[in-house]
User: Fold this.
Amino acid sequence: MMSAEKNAKSSRIVSWVKKLGFWGFMFFLIKGLIWLAVTYWIVK
Assistant:
């Protein structure tokens, strides 16, 4: 019984980390592109 609860909890954590990883990647990608655009606009 204990291992079944542990498996359910760990799979929930893994799926949460995967979602966080995707959204974290998207956040930093968009942030980086915005900084590139701002830098380009300032230099231009």
Remarks:
- Residues 2-43 form the longest helix (42 residues).
- Residues 1-44 form one domain.
- The chain has one domain: 1-44.
